[in-house]
Amino acid sequence: MSWFAPMWPDSDLALLGALTLSAFLAATLLPGGSEVALAGLLALRPDLSLPALTLATLGNTAGGMSSYALGRLLPRKEASPRLELVRRHGSPILLLSWVPLLGDALCVAAGVLRLSGLSCLVWMALGKGLRYGVIASLLQ
Known about the structure:
The chain is mostly helical. It has helices at about 10-25, 35-45, 50-75, 85-90, 100-110, 115-140. The radius of gyration is 16 Å and the shape is elongated. The N and C termini lie far apart (about 35 Å).
């Protein structure tokens, strides 16, 4: 076995990869939810709980950060009243970035307001990770 050999069989890598992709896409402006994918994977392979939670969180956070990046690409203009909530609470509001529809808007707004990328990443990952952890604990 070489040093770069996979830790899991190909079928597990496919499941984990599909979950990561589902989580990424669910966090973008595209419709979809990764909770069902996580629940299905955990029902099928409960032994993959830790990597599944980790990869779902990473994928969902990466998707949220892509929405943040899109917001940064928008021209900066005078803050509209819609952005005031995000301006007032700052990056900690991204704890709610997992909420359907609202979360996407929060991520884009954080980018438009040019909030710190690192701070947004941390709060977003925390919120998304907690959500996946709750889902996983409810399934056990």
